[in-house]
Amino acid sequence: MSSREAILDRIRGNQPEHRELPVAPEGGMAGADTISQFVSALEGIGGAVYIIPGPDHIASIVRGRYPEARRIIAGIPQLAALGENPATVADPHTLEDVDLAILPAHFGVAENGACWISEKQMIERALPFITQHLALVLPADAIVPDMHAAYERIAALDSVEPYGFATFIAGPSKTADIEQSLVLGAHGPASLTVFLLDERLPEAGYF
Amino acid sequence: MRVGLFIPCYIDQFYPQVGVATLQLLEKLGCEVVYPPDQTCCGQPMANSGFGHLTHGCNDLFIKNFSGFDYIVAPSGSCVLHIKEHLHGEGDASAKQAAGGAGSKHPDGGEHPDGGADIAGKIFELVEFLTDILKIERLDAAFPHKVGLHQSCHGQRGLHLAQMSELMAPPFSKPERLLSMVKGLELTGLDRLDECCGFGGTFCVTEEAVSVKMGKDRVADHIKHGAEFITACDMSCLMHMEGILRRHKSTARVKHIAEILNSQ
Amino acid sequence: MRPHNNHTDHAALAAIFNRDEPRVDWHDQTLWWVRRKRDVAASKVPEWEQLREAASRIKDNVLSHLSGYLAQFEEAAMRNGVKVHWAADAAEHNAIVYSILQRHRVDRMVKSKSMLTEECGLNEFLHEKGIDVVDTDLGERVVQLAGEPPSHIVLPCIHKKKEEIGEIFHEHLGTPSGNADPKFLTHAARLHLREKFLTRRVALTGINFAVAETGEFVVCTNEGNADMGAHLADVHIACMGIEKLVPERRHLGVFLRLLTRSATGQPITTYSSHFRRPRPGQEMHVVLVDNGRSVHLGRPDFRNSLKCIRCAACFNTCPVYRRSGGHSYHTAVGGPIGSILSPNFDREKNADLPFASTLCGSCSNVCPVKIDIHQQLYKWRQVIVREGYAPVVKKAAMQTMNWVLSNPGLYHAAGKTGRWFLLHVPFAVNNGLNAWYRQREMPEPPKQSFGEWYKKNKHE
After folding, report:
1. Which CATH class is domain C45-295?
2. Which of C15, C301, C460 sits opposite B209 (nearest CB)?
């Protein structure tokens, strides 16, 4: 008998009687302060947030924040002038020297400042992790209140385009393993900048 | 109201004044109090050490002594909790073992005591008896001192005498409510509201190093906040902390809550 | 090499730990701070207690249909192109991992945090086979270089001071001696491990949650090391205990809200990566490990411990753990949850663990899946004694106690005698043989017991 059969047999013999699944909590409704909740959650975990009218404003902010970035990958069509936008990457190891990656994300989660980004948006799975700095771009109205709402959104997205890999990214990589001292920048990017696009904002200035 | 007084073994032997205070307090509040003379122990020290199967003698003695009262009251949260959760008479143990330890569900989550069933429903720790059964609103007591309240774990987490700091739930404290009725008493604070003192039954000697360290830290927390007396619902916690206080020649002393509530 | 201290028991190891009181204070206060961060995070979620209840019931459901969910997960994963392996025990798990490495002719790999692989002794096994394993979680790398097991399942080197870590890095990574700056040391580790990520073809990760519905699994890290390893490797091996399932993807909402708040007080880890299909050209393997879990599932009193999501909230709140340190538990997973899981694996070696507790009950209150930890500690004590693992001396003492306490006459006589000795011959009691007396005064013996007072002063 294979281990699989032996294990399943033993489990079948030992598992307790049926216990009902609870009614799943429902996702909260986006409210007036969902965006500000997201901003404060993300800033609280070391991320930076800009609310801007459109992607045109990204280039100047990025040049200001990352003046020394030499290799930039900008996975957003409107940012073609800023960096590379390869359709595919033959070998993820070649991304080793990327200083900044600017990628789109599907939506954000207000309760924890996380952004959901799937494989297609990443160009290559390794990119959001191997880059020294990461920026994500998403519509300001694509922020859901909590994780229950997040998984409802993921189910909807997944039914249109199933992901092979996707992740929540909440802030820059970090560790507190050395005497509980928080250090930003562990193995993933050392910083995270999120651009929230809000078309209703006037062109003449941005937050 | 006929109350059977249950005095834990170590209070009987080492802290009789706590028993006296409990009895006097209950009588002051209008109870007819009877002390069954043949009582010994609730069996907790053995059960907590894994020797629950040896406690039949204690259990049967307890049931014999304490049947027939309206209520049973004891100045000890851990002993009362133990009786509530684990008391069962002679015939029950083998039935439980045959069932593979499944047992029947008790609202407390413990085993359902047969033969001791009515006792589990009638036994109360002193503080909860005063607040929940007698429902007293005022107390004719005075104790003009700075007092630190130690939340003994079994009373707090087992009997819900007070809210637990880990739970996201509204705060409350039955012992504090009673202490607030005592004239002149000033309740001092704590950095850690409800950390265990480290007594833990036989733990106090089998894990002596950790037990003492926990006790020292508890005592230091109280003293840091200016407590002259440390009180609690459980004399075992206080006995452990008193041992440490006296070894370190501290001026702070312990006093069981029964004695404080009974002070004039 | 990582030896486990399994030749002495918790009490003895904890006594050694307590010889350095300032260090105990430091360890205790650090972990208490983590517990307080958890409180603050939980207080910001108004429905926190309902979430715990939901998580508990979802896991109850999982355990009651575990065989079905495992089969469902396997089928979905295989459809996604993931190879699924079943390991009955630690040895088989290790052999499976090794065989994958052999097939790819690889002698080195990177590994992100997996307590399961710790439980199986994977690193030692592979080391003996000549495979170089680099642990990439910073805390795990520290203890790996120090030749020690982790002392905490989430914060592996919480027992190490930064100066000690600085010295370890100086010795192994060439950082300047005396440099104990966490930022500098972390950056040094970043560079050192980046080279490993870029050059190794096989990455092994743990699994925080596997979803039966979709065949995907989630790996949560703050550092990004699991992802750096997996997305650069030709082969990704993910290992999990068979109990780490959730039924549907949406249930992750409940668990991801609870996990990191319970563990460190953060709302979520930096990365919560959902792996469903291998990268084109990559091999992805999942190893499902039993190692005693299916047997444990059959114990009505103890099966709840299989709900554990390895958050370590119980460690942080345990006043005993904080003052004895993880190594005193001499087992891969220690602390309160380890004390109810480990006796299942090895009754004799771990018989001491359920007694390393005052049964204060704090652990059960912080557990995000409502495992009745303190009640299981009590029940394990009964099992251990019944099966004959109690020390002989204790057994004798308990039997004497039972005899005395079942007999009122004997009890009164014994009490009177004890008090007489304390009063008149104190050194008979207050001596080096009396463990109580080492650091505490004995209680003052009163002139009469309560029973004697009552007899004199009250009517019958």
Report:
1. alpha beta
2. C15
